[in-house]
Amino acid sequence: MSEPLPHSDALVIFGVSGDLASKQIFPALQALVRSGQLDYPVVGVALEPWDAAALTARVRESLEAHGGVDAAAFDRLTPLLNYVGGDYNDPATFDRLGQTLHRLSVSRPLFYLAIPPSMFGTVAEGLARAGVTENARVVVEKPFGRDLATARELNAILHRYFPEPAIFRIDHYLGKEPVQNLLYFRFANAFLEPLWNRDHVACVQITMGEAFGVAGRGRFYEEAGAIRDVVQNHMLQIVALLAMDAPTVLGAEVVRDEKARILRAIRPLAPEDVVRGQYRGYRQEPGVAPQSQVETYAAVRLRLNTWRWSGVPFYIRAGKALPVTIGEVLVRLRRPPQDVFGERVPGRPNYLRFRLQPDVVLALGARVKAPGEPMVGQPVELDAFYQPGGEMSPYERLLGDAAEGDASLFAREDGVEAQWSVVDGILGESGPVHQYDPNTWGPAEAAGLLEGGDTWHDPKPDTPREPKPERRPSGAANAGGGGHPAGA
Ligand code: BG6
User: Fold this and answer.
1) C-beta of 328 in contact with ligand 1 (< 6 A)
2) Which of 12, 164, 322, 364 could make a disulfide contact with 209, Cβ separation 3.0–4.6 Å?
3) What is the pLDDT of residue 488?
4) How far is the CA of 452 from the centre of ligand 1 (A)?
5) pTM of the model
6) d(CA 230, ligand 1 centre) in Å
């Protein structure tokens, strides 16, 4: 997708015995082998006294639990697996890793740090001391810092050993197909641009709902909360894709320059721009304090200080234990300047809806005349696109890209720091945390964030549709079966 660097010739996974490796990385490795993109050695590193056979057994067990074993791909993956055990504080661990890389004739390793950020410095230093950082790349997982100050410290630590172009910060949302489609759809279609500004857009709403609680991650969540966990990263990346200006070309740095520019233009959030919520029952989750004030839900109102977006609120709502697991963007357009038909229709009849998950939907909300004598209308949705979810996983795509040296879908230092600057003022107990019942859309107080009589758009699962038939070359005008009941 952009200015490629030389391909890595080995993948070294620190934290290979952990949860992330088990749930995300191993399935991605199997998929990469299947698609022919992975034929180089994989070296797992962790404290466990394992060998390659024990790692192989662990990979199999993980695949059985997460997506299934593809016998042919697994057989090709097995001989690629190597293991180095040891403590990250012990230089001998890195010496052994160095010997392994030498034995495997590796000269351009990709180091994946699937470990707590507090260990990044130790591992990076160990690698440097063992002399294996030259021509290397490093992939780091979120959370990238706990706030602006710690993110800067982390960046400084990594930069001691790796230049910025060698650092690949994962935000797995960027690896999702529908998230990439936001960028594509916006800049591959000229008709959108005249509408895409304060003259026509009334507001933008982004919802990330999860119909489950903290799912055993209580201890982690107590340290994070929804703002750190998903707003600072995934949600702000989506805002950037929706609001950025067009990149001149498709290059990792050019796209990331535009994203960083818009992220820097977001006014830092103040407590009055936020409603924090906590689902009833959270305090009883294992690892959660009985009086916890941590938010499992956040609604925020963003202001973008740019010519294009001045006066257009961008709202984000993200939470656990909501009615449905869903991701959706709704761009509400302004009403017609005059109510010619005297209908006094509430709300804003025109909108664009981008479903981000679990399936992919792109729809345009409009009004059409209802059949019959009177000039009265009804809402419809023109369905531009529907695709069931479940193609390439974000980790498969991101790991493949990192090995190729394509940084387009990774967060860059300036962008990450701009994201922290937006949320820095609302981290922790910045205001009250309102209790809400599981299976609802969060605390009622969130309605108070909306301006101009707006209401929150509660996304509903779309009805799966049949794949669209091939379009006829004559190009009949049917954009694809409009007429779904409007949902905004
Ligand atoms: C992670 C968060 O980054 O994203 C989780 O830590 C959240 O709390 C997850 O559940 C959501 O990702 P996805 O891909 O399932 O929407």
Assistant:
1) no
2) 322
3) 53
4) 32
5) 0.92
6) 7
Ligand 1 nearest-atom number relative to CA 142: 3
CA-nearest residue, atom 7 of ligand 1 = 230
Q: Which residues face 352 on adjacent strands?
A: 331, 364
* Per-residue model confidence (pLDDT) at position 461: 85
Does 229 contact ligand 1 (Cβ within 6 A)?
yes
Identify which of 327, 222, 227, 207 has the alpha carbon closest to the alpha carbon of residue 268: 227
Looking at residue 466, what is its pLDDT? 65
User: In this structure, which residue's CA is closest to atom 11 in ligand 1?
Assistant: 230
| Confidence (pLDDT) at 384 | 78
Q: Residue 467's pLDDT is what? A: 56
CB 210 less than 6 A from any atom of ligand 1:
yes
Rounded to the nearest whole angstrom, what is the distance from the C-alpha of residue 157 to the centroid of ligand 1?
26
**pLDDT reported for residue 212:** 97
Question: Is the distance from the beta carbon of residue 141 to the nearest atom of ligand 1 less than 6 Å?
Answer: no
Block means of pLDDT (10 residues each) for the chain, 488 residues, are 74 96 97 96 97 98 96 98 98 98 97 92 95 96 92 94 96 93 94 96 98 92 95 98 95 95 98 98 97 98 98 98 97 93 85 92 94 92 78 91 96 97 94 97 98 93 66 42 46
Rounded to the nearest angstrom, the distance between the alpha carbon of 229 and the centre of ligand 1 is 8
Amino acid (1-letter code) at residue 25: I
What residues are annotated to the active site? 234
User: Does ligand 1 lie within 6 Å of residue 230's CB atom?
Assistant: yes
Tell me which residue has tokens 């590193």: 45
